[in-house]
Protein: Glutamate--cysteine ligase
Amino acid sequence: MTDLSSLRLARLRDHRELLGLTLRGIEKEGLRVDAQGRLARTPHPAQLGSALTNERITTDYSESLLELITGTHKDAASLIGELEDTHRYVQACLDDEVIWNQSMPALLPPEADIPIAYYGTSNTGTLKHVYRRGLAERYGKTMQCIAGVHYNFSLDDRLWQVLDLPGADDQARRSAGYIGLIRNFTRYSWLLMYLFGAAPALSREFLRGREHPLQSLDAQTLYLPYATSLRMSDLGYQNKAQSQLKLCYNDLSTFLQRLHAAVTQPWEPYRQIGTHRDGQWIQLNTNILQIENEYYSSIRPKRATRRGERPITALAERGVQYVEVRCLDIDPYAPVGITAATSRFVDAFLLFCAASDSPFFPVNGFCQHSADNFSVVVTEGRRPGLQLSREGAPIALRDWGRELLDRIAPYAQLLDETYGGDAYRQAMAAQAEKIDHPESTPSARLLDDMRSAGASFQEFTLAQSQAHARTLRGSPLPADQTAQYQEWARASMAEQQAIEAADDVDFDTYLARYMEAVQAPPTLPRV
Structure:
Protein backbone atom coordinates (compact mmCIF):
# COMPACT_ATOMS: atom_id res chain seq x y z
CA MET A 1 0.00 0.00 0.00
CA THR A 2 1.43 3.39 -0.99
CA ASP A 3 1.93 6.23 1.47
CA LEU A 4 -1.00 8.11 -0.07
CA SER A 5 -3.29 5.07 0.16
CA SER A 6 -2.27 4.47 3.78
CA LEU A 7 -2.95 8.10 4.62
CA ARG A 8 -6.36 8.00 2.97
CA LEU A 9 -7.27 4.75 4.73
CA ALA A 10 -6.39 6.34 8.07
CA ARG A 11 -8.53 9.37 7.26
CA LEU A 12 -11.45 7.13 6.33
CA ARG A 13 -11.09 5.31 9.63
CA ASP A 14 -11.27 8.64 11.43
CA HIS A 15 -14.53 9.42 9.59
CA ARG A 16 -16.30 6.08 9.78
CA GLU A 17 -19.58 7.85 10.51
CA LEU A 18 -19.47 9.21 6.93
CA LEU A 19 -18.70 5.76 5.51
CA GLY A 20 -21.92 4.59 7.13
CA LEU A 21 -23.76 6.98 4.78
CA THR A 22 -22.52 5.18 1.67
CA LEU A 23 -25.41 4.44 -0.69
CA ARG A 24 -25.88 1.48 -3.00
CA GLY A 25 -28.72 0.46 -5.32
CA ILE A 26 -29.43 -2.27 -7.86
CA GLU A 27 -31.08 -2.45 -11.27
CA LYS A 28 -31.61 -6.13 -12.05
CA GLU A 29 -32.75 -7.34 -15.47
CA GLY A 30 -34.48 -10.64 -16.19
CA LEU A 31 -36.39 -12.09 -19.12
CA ARG A 32 -39.90 -13.40 -18.65
CA VAL A 33 -40.18 -16.94 -20.02
CA ASP A 34 -42.99 -19.45 -20.34
CA ALA A 35 -43.18 -22.93 -18.82
CA GLN A 36 -41.03 -24.34 -21.63
CA GLY A 37 -38.34 -21.71 -21.18
CA ARG A 38 -39.24 -19.77 -24.31
CA LEU A 39 -39.27 -15.98 -24.33
CA ALA A 40 -42.66 -14.75 -23.17
CA ARG A 41 -44.31 -12.66 -25.88
CA THR A 42 -47.09 -11.39 -23.64
CA PRO A 43 -47.36 -7.67 -22.82
CA HIS A 44 -45.78 -6.26 -19.68
CA PRO A 45 -48.23 -7.43 -16.97
CA ALA A 46 -50.77 -4.76 -15.99
CA GLN A 47 -50.33 -5.64 -12.28
CA LEU A 48 -46.78 -4.31 -12.52
CA GLY A 49 -47.96 -0.85 -13.49
CA SER A 50 -46.61 1.44 -16.18
CA ALA A 51 -43.16 0.57 -17.53
CA LEU A 52 -42.78 4.28 -18.27
CA THR A 53 -43.37 5.63 -14.78
CA ASN A 54 -43.11 2.84 -12.19
CA GLU A 55 -39.80 3.58 -10.50
CA ARG A 56 -39.45 0.04 -9.14
CA ILE A 57 -40.58 -2.22 -11.97
CA THR A 58 -40.02 -1.42 -15.63
CA THR A 59 -38.70 -2.99 -18.83
CA ASP A 60 -35.35 -2.67 -20.53
CA TYR A 61 -34.95 -3.41 -24.25
CA SER A 62 -37.75 -5.88 -24.79
CA GLU A 63 -41.33 -5.95 -23.55
CA SER A 64 -40.25 -9.30 -22.08
CA LEU A 65 -37.12 -7.98 -20.34
CA LEU A 66 -38.02 -6.92 -16.81
CA GLU A 67 -35.90 -4.41 -14.93
CA LEU A 68 -36.38 -4.38 -11.16
CA ILE A 69 -34.99 -1.28 -9.45
CA THR A 70 -34.27 -0.75 -5.77
CA GLY A 71 -34.04 2.51 -3.93
CA THR A 72 -30.72 3.52 -2.39
CA HIS A 73 -29.71 1.81 0.84
CA LYS A 74 -27.15 2.40 3.55
CA ASP A 75 -26.43 -1.33 4.01
CA ALA A 76 -26.28 -4.45 1.87
CA ALA A 77 -28.85 -6.44 3.86
CA SER A 78 -31.68 -3.95 3.35
CA LEU A 79 -30.66 -3.53 -0.31
CA ILE A 80 -30.99 -7.24 -1.06
CA GLY A 81 -34.10 -7.35 1.13
CA GLU A 82 -35.88 -4.81 -1.07
CA LEU A 83 -34.76 -6.63 -4.22
CA GLU A 84 -36.19 -9.85 -2.77
CA ASP A 85 -39.49 -8.16 -1.94
CA THR A 86 -39.86 -6.82 -5.46
CA HIS A 87 -39.06 -10.24 -6.93
CA ARG A 88 -41.66 -11.84 -4.68
CA TYR A 89 -44.31 -9.37 -5.80
CA VAL A 90 -43.41 -9.70 -9.49
CA GLN A 91 -43.25 -13.48 -9.45
CA ALA A 92 -46.70 -13.60 -7.83
CA CYS A 93 -48.04 -11.54 -10.76
CA LEU A 94 -46.56 -13.69 -13.53
CA ASP A 95 -49.02 -16.62 -13.46
CA ASP A 96 -47.24 -19.44 -15.34
CA GLU A 97 -44.25 -17.35 -16.39
CA VAL A 98 -40.95 -17.20 -14.50
CA ILE A 99 -37.98 -14.86 -14.46
CA TRP A 100 -35.05 -16.34 -16.41
CA ASN A 101 -32.20 -16.31 -13.90
CA GLN A 102 -29.28 -16.15 -16.30
CA SER A 103 -27.56 -13.39 -18.23
CA MET A 104 -27.56 -15.24 -21.55
CA PRO A 105 -31.06 -15.50 -23.02
CA ALA A 106 -33.63 -18.23 -23.08
CA LEU A 107 -34.94 -19.72 -26.32
CA LEU A 108 -35.76 -16.76 -28.49
CA PRO A 109 -38.28 -16.52 -31.32
CA PRO A 110 -37.18 -15.36 -34.77
CA GLU A 111 -35.49 -11.96 -34.61
CA ALA A 112 -38.51 -10.17 -36.06
CA ASP A 113 -40.79 -11.60 -33.37
CA ILE A 114 -38.84 -10.37 -30.32
CA PRO A 115 -41.15 -7.66 -28.91
CA ILE A 116 -39.62 -4.22 -28.38
CA ALA A 117 -40.68 -2.53 -25.14
CA TYR A 118 -43.69 -0.23 -25.42
CA TYR A 119 -44.21 2.79 -23.18
CA GLY A 120 -47.51 4.26 -24.32
CA THR A 121 -48.36 7.10 -26.66
CA SER A 122 -46.67 10.06 -24.97
CA ASN A 123 -43.71 11.75 -26.61
CA THR A 124 -41.51 10.54 -23.75
CA GLY A 125 -42.69 6.96 -24.21
CA THR A 126 -42.36 7.13 -27.99
CA LEU A 127 -38.78 8.37 -27.68
CA LYS A 128 -37.92 5.37 -25.50
CA HIS A 129 -39.58 3.01 -27.99
CA VAL A 130 -37.95 4.51 -31.09
CA TYR A 131 -34.56 4.45 -29.35
CA ARG A 132 -35.03 0.70 -28.92
CA ARG A 133 -36.00 0.35 -32.57
CA GLY A 134 -32.69 1.98 -33.34
CA LEU A 135 -30.87 -0.52 -31.14
CA ALA A 136 -32.51 -3.31 -33.14
CA GLU A 137 -31.30 -1.76 -36.40
CA ARG A 138 -27.77 -1.27 -35.10
CA TYR A 139 -27.11 -4.37 -33.01
CA GLY A 140 -29.97 -6.79 -33.63
CA LYS A 141 -32.73 -7.72 -31.21
CA THR A 142 -31.06 -10.94 -30.08
CA MET A 143 -28.10 -9.14 -28.50
CA GLN A 144 -30.49 -6.81 -26.68
CA CYS A 145 -31.94 -9.75 -24.75
CA ILE A 146 -28.72 -10.26 -22.77
CA ALA A 147 -29.33 -9.34 -19.13
CA GLY A 148 -27.24 -8.29 -16.16
CA VAL A 149 -27.11 -6.66 -12.75
CA HIS A 150 -26.21 -2.97 -12.51
CA TYR A 151 -24.79 -1.81 -9.19
CA ASN A 152 -25.01 1.87 -8.25
CA PHE A 153 -22.62 3.23 -5.63
CA SER A 154 -22.00 6.62 -4.06
CA LEU A 155 -19.98 7.96 -1.15
CA ASP A 156 -21.07 10.79 1.08
CA ASP A 157 -19.90 14.02 -0.57
CA ARG A 158 -17.83 15.01 2.47
CA LEU A 159 -15.59 11.96 2.05
CA TRP A 160 -14.01 13.41 -1.09
CA GLN A 161 -12.64 16.22 1.05
CA VAL A 162 -11.50 13.66 3.63
CA LEU A 163 -9.62 11.88 0.84
CA ASP A 164 -8.02 15.23 -0.10
CA LEU A 165 -9.07 15.15 -3.74
CA PRO A 166 -8.00 18.16 -5.83
CA GLY A 167 -10.59 20.60 -7.09
CA ALA A 168 -11.72 24.19 -6.85
CA ASP A 169 -14.92 23.32 -4.99
CA ASP A 170 -16.91 20.39 -3.60
CA GLN A 171 -18.44 19.54 -6.99
CA ALA A 172 -15.06 19.46 -8.71
CA ARG A 173 -13.57 17.29 -5.95
CA ARG A 174 -16.50 14.88 -6.09
CA SER A 175 -16.29 14.51 -9.86
CA ALA A 176 -12.50 14.08 -9.75
CA GLY A 177 -12.94 11.41 -7.08
CA TYR A 178 -15.45 9.39 -9.07
CA ILE A 179 -13.42 9.67 -12.28
CA GLY A 180 -10.37 8.47 -10.35
CA LEU A 181 -12.46 5.58 -9.00
CA ILE A 182 -13.41 4.72 -12.59
CA ARG A 183 -9.76 4.69 -13.68
CA ASN A 184 -8.91 2.20 -10.96
CA PHE A 185 -12.03 0.18 -11.70
CA THR A 186 -10.87 -0.02 -15.33
CA ARG A 187 -7.48 -1.28 -14.18
CA TYR A 188 -8.85 -3.97 -11.86
CA SER A 189 -12.34 -4.91 -13.09
CA TRP A 190 -11.00 -8.11 -14.61
CA LEU A 191 -11.04 -9.35 -11.00
CA LEU A 192 -14.84 -8.96 -10.83
CA MET A 193 -15.22 -10.98 -14.02
CA TYR A 194 -13.09 -13.80 -12.62
CA LEU A 195 -14.88 -13.85 -9.27
CA PHE A 196 -18.48 -13.28 -10.37
CA GLY A 197 -18.66 -14.09 -14.09
CA ALA A 198 -21.43 -16.66 -14.47
CA ALA A 199 -22.06 -16.95 -18.19
CA PRO A 200 -19.55 -19.42 -19.67
CA ALA A 201 -22.16 -21.10 -21.91
CA LEU A 202 -25.17 -20.28 -24.05
CA SER A 203 -27.82 -21.83 -26.23
CA ARG A 204 -26.56 -22.74 -29.70
CA GLU A 205 -29.58 -20.99 -31.21
CA PHE A 206 -28.50 -17.65 -29.72
CA LEU A 207 -25.89 -17.17 -32.44
CA ARG A 208 -28.42 -17.59 -35.26
CA GLY A 209 -25.88 -19.50 -37.38
CA ARG A 210 -23.13 -16.85 -37.14
CA GLU A 211 -19.48 -17.92 -37.11
CA HIS A 212 -18.02 -18.16 -33.62
CA PRO A 213 -15.03 -19.51 -31.65
CA LEU A 214 -17.14 -21.53 -29.19
CA GLN A 215 -17.01 -25.26 -28.55
CA SER A 216 -19.89 -27.71 -28.23
CA LEU A 217 -20.77 -28.81 -24.72
CA ASP A 218 -23.72 -30.81 -26.02
CA ALA A 219 -26.02 -30.73 -29.03
CA GLN A 220 -27.80 -27.59 -27.79
CA THR A 221 -25.06 -25.80 -25.84
CA LEU A 222 -21.96 -23.83 -26.81
CA TYR A 223 -19.27 -22.75 -24.35
CA LEU A 224 -15.62 -21.93 -23.80
CA PRO A 225 -13.93 -24.23 -21.27
CA TYR A 226 -12.23 -21.45 -19.29
CA ALA A 227 -14.67 -18.58 -19.92
CA THR A 228 -16.14 -16.55 -17.11
CA SER A 229 -18.62 -14.30 -18.94
CA LEU A 230 -19.48 -14.68 -22.61
CA ARG A 231 -21.95 -11.85 -21.99
CA MET A 232 -19.04 -9.42 -21.66
CA SER A 233 -17.08 -10.87 -24.60
CA ASP A 234 -17.14 -9.89 -28.28
CA LEU A 235 -20.29 -12.00 -28.60
CA GLY A 236 -22.17 -9.37 -26.61
CA TYR A 237 -23.28 -5.80 -27.19
CA GLN A 238 -20.65 -4.38 -29.55
CA ASN A 239 -20.35 -2.93 -33.04
CA LYS A 240 -17.78 -1.18 -35.17
CA ALA A 241 -19.02 2.31 -34.36
CA GLN A 242 -18.74 1.77 -30.60
CA SER A 243 -15.42 -0.05 -30.87
CA GLN A 244 -13.86 3.20 -32.08
CA LEU A 245 -14.98 5.13 -28.99
CA LYS A 246 -12.16 5.65 -26.51
CA LEU A 247 -13.80 7.84 -23.90
CA CYS A 248 -11.15 9.40 -21.71
CA TYR A 249 -11.32 8.86 -17.95
CA ASN A 250 -8.48 11.23 -17.09
CA ASP A 251 -10.92 14.05 -16.39
CA LEU A 252 -14.64 14.70 -16.62
CA SER A 253 -14.29 17.49 -19.19
CA THR A 254 -12.56 15.33 -21.79
CA PHE A 255 -14.95 12.46 -21.15
CA LEU A 256 -17.95 14.73 -21.78
CA GLN A 257 -16.39 16.31 -24.87
CA ARG A 258 -15.88 12.89 -26.45
CA LEU A 259 -19.32 11.69 -25.42
CA HIS A 260 -20.79 14.85 -26.96
CA ALA A 261 -18.99 14.11 -30.21
CA ALA A 262 -20.41 10.57 -30.24
CA VAL A 263 -24.02 11.73 -29.82
CA THR A 264 -23.72 14.49 -32.43
CA GLN A 265 -21.53 13.06 -35.21
CA PRO A 266 -23.18 10.96 -37.96
CA TRP A 267 -21.95 7.45 -38.76
CA GLU A 268 -22.19 6.55 -42.43
CA PRO A 269 -23.63 3.01 -42.06
CA TYR A 270 -26.39 4.46 -39.86
CA ARG A 271 -26.99 7.25 -42.36
CA GLN A 272 -27.59 4.57 -44.97
CA ILE A 273 -30.21 2.97 -42.71
CA GLY A 274 -31.96 6.32 -42.30
CA THR A 275 -34.38 7.40 -39.60
CA HIS A 276 -37.65 6.32 -41.25
CA ARG A 277 -39.03 3.25 -42.98
CA ASP A 278 -42.53 3.06 -44.40
CA GLY A 279 -43.31 6.38 -42.75
CA GLN A 280 -42.30 5.15 -39.27
CA TRP A 281 -39.37 6.21 -37.10
CA ILE A 282 -36.77 3.42 -36.89
CA GLN A 283 -33.99 5.28 -35.05
CA LEU A 284 -33.70 8.63 -33.34
CA ASN A 285 -30.85 9.82 -35.57
CA THR A 286 -27.90 8.50 -37.57
CA ASN A 287 -25.17 9.49 -35.10
CA ILE A 288 -22.55 7.18 -33.60
CA LEU A 289 -24.78 7.05 -30.51
CA GLN A 290 -28.47 7.95 -30.64
CA ILE A 291 -28.32 9.13 -27.03
CA GLU A 292 -25.79 8.87 -24.20
CA ASN A 293 -27.26 5.66 -22.74
CA GLU A 294 -26.31 3.75 -25.88
CA TYR A 295 -22.65 3.88 -24.93
CA TYR A 296 -21.69 0.43 -23.69
CA SER A 297 -19.13 0.23 -20.90
CA SER A 298 -18.50 -1.76 -17.75
CA ILE A 299 -18.89 1.35 -15.57
CA ARG A 300 -20.46 4.79 -16.07
CA PRO A 301 -20.29 8.12 -14.25
CA LYS A 302 -23.89 9.09 -13.48
CA ARG A 303 -26.04 11.99 -12.34
CA ALA A 304 -29.79 11.94 -11.75
CA THR A 305 -31.56 13.84 -14.52
CA ARG A 306 -34.65 16.00 -14.51
CA ARG A 307 -37.53 15.11 -16.85
CA GLY A 308 -36.39 15.75 -20.42
CA GLU A 309 -32.82 16.62 -19.38
CA ARG A 310 -29.93 15.01 -21.24
CA PRO A 311 -27.42 13.06 -19.11
CA ILE A 312 -24.50 14.93 -20.63
CA THR A 313 -26.04 18.25 -19.55
CA ALA A 314 -26.67 17.01 -16.00
CA LEU A 315 -23.06 15.81 -15.65
CA ALA A 316 -21.62 19.02 -17.07
CA GLU A 317 -23.73 21.30 -14.89
CA ARG A 318 -23.82 19.38 -11.59
CA GLY A 319 -20.97 16.87 -11.80
CA VAL A 320 -20.82 13.14 -11.10
CA GLN A 321 -23.20 11.91 -8.40
CA TYR A 322 -22.51 8.17 -8.39
CA VAL A 323 -21.09 5.34 -10.49
CA GLU A 324 -23.00 2.53 -12.15
CA VAL A 325 -21.17 -0.81 -12.38
CA ARG A 326 -22.55 -2.69 -15.38
CA CYS A 327 -20.40 -5.82 -15.75
CA LEU A 328 -21.96 -8.09 -13.11
CA ASP A 329 -23.64 -11.21 -14.48
CA ILE A 330 -26.84 -12.52 -12.99
CA ASP A 331 -25.89 -15.05 -10.32
CA PRO A 332 -27.77 -18.20 -11.40
CA TYR A 333 -27.57 -19.63 -7.87
CA ALA A 334 -29.26 -16.64 -6.18
CA PRO A 335 -33.07 -16.34 -6.48
CA VAL A 336 -32.75 -12.60 -7.14
CA GLY A 337 -29.55 -12.75 -9.19
CA ILE A 338 -27.15 -11.34 -6.58
CA THR A 339 -26.33 -12.03 -2.93
CA ALA A 340 -25.59 -9.73 -0.02
CA ALA A 341 -22.05 -11.17 0.07
CA THR A 342 -21.46 -10.07 -3.53
CA SER A 343 -22.83 -6.63 -2.68
CA ARG A 344 -20.42 -6.34 0.23
CA PHE A 345 -17.42 -7.37 -1.84
CA VAL A 346 -18.32 -4.85 -4.54
CA ASP A 347 -18.63 -2.17 -1.85
CA ALA A 348 -15.13 -2.94 -0.56
CA PHE A 349 -13.74 -3.14 -4.10
CA LEU A 350 -15.20 0.25 -5.06
CA LEU A 351 -14.03 1.88 -1.84
CA PHE A 352 -10.54 0.53 -2.57
CA CYS A 353 -10.78 1.99 -6.10
CA ALA A 354 -11.85 5.36 -4.70
CA ALA A 355 -9.16 5.64 -2.04
CA SER A 356 -6.15 4.16 -3.87
CA ASP A 357 -3.68 6.03 -6.06
CA SER A 358 -5.21 6.52 -9.50
CA PRO A 359 -2.63 7.84 -11.97
CA PHE A 360 -3.85 9.25 -15.26
CA PHE A 361 -3.93 6.87 -18.19
CA PRO A 362 -1.35 7.41 -20.94
CA VAL A 363 -2.00 7.90 -24.66
CA ASN A 364 -5.17 9.87 -25.07
CA GLY A 365 -6.69 8.77 -21.79
CA PHE A 366 -7.15 5.10 -22.73
CA CYS A 367 -5.39 2.07 -21.26
CA GLN A 368 -5.12 -0.80 -23.74
CA HIS A 369 -3.52 -3.13 -21.20
CA SER A 370 -6.61 -2.89 -18.99
CA ALA A 371 -8.97 -3.50 -21.90
CA ASP A 372 -6.93 -6.54 -22.97
CA ASN A 373 -6.88 -7.96 -19.43
CA PHE A 374 -10.64 -7.65 -19.19
CA SER A 375 -11.14 -9.34 -22.56
CA VAL A 376 -8.88 -12.28 -21.84
CA VAL A 377 -10.44 -12.94 -18.43
CA VAL A 378 -14.00 -13.07 -19.79
CA THR A 379 -13.02 -15.69 -22.37
CA GLU A 380 -10.32 -17.71 -20.57
CA GLY A 381 -10.03 -16.41 -17.03
CA ARG A 382 -9.81 -19.88 -15.47
CA ARG A 383 -7.10 -21.17 -17.80
CA PRO A 384 -4.29 -22.64 -15.65
CA GLY A 385 -1.27 -20.36 -15.53
CA LEU A 386 -3.06 -17.48 -17.27
CA GLN A 387 -0.89 -14.36 -17.51
CA LEU A 388 -2.17 -10.79 -17.55
CA SER A 389 -0.36 -7.54 -18.28
CA ARG A 390 0.35 -5.14 -15.43
CA GLU A 391 1.72 -1.91 -16.88
CA GLY A 392 3.17 -3.90 -19.75
CA ALA A 393 4.83 -6.61 -17.62
CA PRO A 394 3.41 -10.15 -17.45
CA ILE A 395 1.94 -11.35 -14.17
CA ALA A 396 -0.01 -14.49 -13.29
CA LEU A 397 -3.71 -13.87 -12.69
CA ARG A 398 -3.52 -15.85 -9.46
CA ASP A 399 -0.62 -13.77 -8.12
CA TRP A 400 -2.21 -10.45 -9.05
CA GLY A 401 -5.57 -11.59 -7.72
CA ARG A 402 -4.10 -12.49 -4.34
CA GLU A 403 -2.27 -9.17 -4.21
CA LEU A 404 -5.45 -7.22 -5.00
CA LEU A 405 -7.44 -9.08 -2.35
CA ASP A 406 -4.73 -8.24 0.18
CA ARG A 407 -5.03 -4.56 -0.81
CA ILE A 408 -8.84 -4.61 -0.63
CA ALA A 409 -8.93 -6.42 2.73
CA PRO A 410 -8.26 -3.31 4.89
CA TYR A 411 -11.29 -1.62 3.30
CA ALA A 412 -13.47 -4.65 4.08
CA GLN A 413 -12.24 -4.50 7.68
CA LEU A 414 -12.98 -0.78 7.79
CA LEU A 415 -16.53 -1.41 6.56
CA ASP A 416 -16.97 -4.06 9.25
CA GLU A 417 -15.80 -1.53 11.82
CA THR A 418 -18.37 0.89 10.39
CA TYR A 419 -21.36 -1.49 10.31
CA GLY A 420 -20.37 -3.96 13.02
CA GLY A 421 -19.81 -7.69 12.68
CA ASP A 422 -17.58 -9.45 10.18
CA ALA A 423 -19.80 -9.81 7.09
CA TYR A 424 -17.40 -7.88 4.86
CA ARG A 425 -14.43 -9.98 5.90
CA GLN A 426 -16.46 -13.12 5.31
CA ALA A 427 -17.25 -11.88 1.80
CA MET A 428 -13.52 -11.34 1.24
CA ALA A 429 -12.69 -14.84 2.46
CA ALA A 430 -15.15 -16.35 -0.01
CA GLN A 431 -13.40 -14.59 -2.87
CA ALA A 432 -9.94 -15.67 -1.72
CA GLU A 433 -11.19 -19.25 -1.99
CA LYS A 434 -11.99 -18.65 -5.66
CA ILE A 435 -8.49 -17.34 -6.40
CA ASP A 436 -6.92 -20.49 -4.99
CA HIS A 437 -9.57 -22.84 -6.36
CA PRO A 438 -10.91 -21.78 -9.80
CA GLU A 439 -13.37 -24.67 -9.70
CA SER A 440 -15.30 -22.77 -7.00
CA THR A 441 -16.03 -19.78 -9.27
CA PRO A 442 -19.65 -19.53 -10.46
CA SER A 443 -18.61 -20.03 -14.09
CA ALA A 444 -16.85 -23.31 -13.26
CA ARG A 445 -19.65 -24.46 -10.96
CA LEU A 446 -22.24 -23.84 -13.66
CA LEU A 447 -20.41 -25.98 -16.22
CA ASP A 448 -19.81 -28.76 -13.66
CA ASP A 449 -23.45 -28.75 -12.57
CA MET A 450 -24.70 -28.88 -16.15
CA ARG A 451 -22.47 -31.85 -16.88
CA SER A 452 -23.48 -33.61 -13.66
CA ALA A 453 -27.16 -33.12 -14.45
CA GLY A 454 -26.71 -34.15 -18.08
CA ALA A 455 -28.64 -31.00 -18.95
CA SER A 456 -28.21 -28.46 -21.70
CA PHE A 457 -27.81 -24.77 -20.90
CA GLN A 458 -31.50 -24.26 -21.68
CA GLU A 459 -32.70 -27.22 -19.60
CA PHE A 460 -30.50 -26.45 -16.60
CA THR A 461 -31.34 -22.75 -16.49
CA LEU A 462 -35.06 -23.38 -16.87
CA ALA A 463 -34.99 -25.85 -13.97
CA GLN A 464 -33.09 -23.37 -11.81
CA SER A 465 -35.37 -20.48 -12.73
CA GLN A 466 -38.44 -22.54 -11.90
CA ALA A 467 -36.93 -23.57 -8.57
CA HIS A 468 -36.20 -19.93 -7.74
CA ALA A 469 -39.78 -19.01 -8.70
CA ARG A 470 -41.09 -21.65 -6.29
CA THR A 471 -38.88 -20.24 -3.56
CA LEU A 472 -40.17 -16.73 -4.16
CA ARG A 473 -43.79 -17.83 -4.36
CA GLY A 474 -43.32 -19.92 -1.24
CA SER A 475 -42.72 -16.79 0.84
CA PRO A 476 -45.35 -14.33 -0.39
CA LEU A 477 -45.30 -10.73 0.73
CA PRO A 478 -47.44 -9.71 3.69
CA ALA A 479 -50.76 -8.20 2.67
CA ASP A 480 -49.72 -4.65 3.51
CA GLN A 481 -46.59 -4.83 1.35
CA THR A 482 -48.54 -6.36 -1.52
CA ALA A 483 -51.03 -3.51 -1.23
CA GLN A 484 -48.18 -1.00 -1.36
CA TYR A 485 -46.79 -2.49 -4.59
CA GLN A 486 -50.30 -2.48 -6.03
CA GLU A 487 -50.73 1.18 -5.12
CA TRP A 488 -47.41 2.05 -6.75
CA ALA A 489 -48.59 0.24 -9.88
CA ARG A 490 -51.92 2.12 -9.91
CA ALA A 491 -50.21 5.45 -9.34
CA SER A 492 -47.77 4.80 -12.17
CA MET A 493 -50.61 4.11 -14.60
CA ALA A 494 -52.28 7.37 -13.61
CA GLU A 495 -48.98 9.23 -14.03
CA GLN A 496 -48.51 7.80 -17.53
CA GLN A 497 -52.00 8.95 -18.49
CA ALA A 498 -51.26 12.43 -17.16
CA ILE A 499 -48.05 12.64 -19.19
CA GLU A 500 -49.90 11.56 -22.33
CA ALA A 501 -52.63 14.15 -21.73
CA ALA A 502 -50.08 16.93 -21.20
CA ASP A 503 -48.30 16.56 -24.55
CA ASP A 504 -48.82 19.71 -26.61
CA VAL A 505 -46.56 19.09 -29.62
CA ASP A 506 -46.18 16.23 -32.07
CA PHE A 507 -43.35 13.72 -31.73
CA ASP A 508 -41.24 15.17 -34.54
CA THR A 509 -41.19 18.55 -32.79
CA TYR A 510 -40.52 16.97 -29.40
CA LEU A 511 -37.62 14.92 -30.75
CA ALA A 512 -36.07 17.90 -32.53
CA ARG A 513 -36.11 19.87 -29.29
CA TYR A 514 -34.65 16.94 -27.36
CA MET A 515 -31.78 16.56 -29.81
CA GLU A 516 -31.11 20.29 -29.89
CA ALA A 517 -30.75 20.22 -26.11
CA VAL A 518 -27.35 18.54 -26.46
CA GLN A 519 -24.98 21.44 -26.14
CA ALA A 520 -21.23 21.02 -26.12
CA PRO A 521 -20.25 20.78 -22.45
CA PRO A 522 -18.13 23.61 -21.10
CA THR A 523 -14.43 23.04 -20.77
CA LEU A 524 -13.89 22.19 -17.13
CA PRO A 525 -10.56 22.73 -15.43
CA ARG A 526 -8.34 19.66 -15.44
CA VAL A 527 -7.28 18.55 -11.99
User: Anything to note?
Assistant: The CA atoms of residues 275 and 285 lie 6 Å apart.
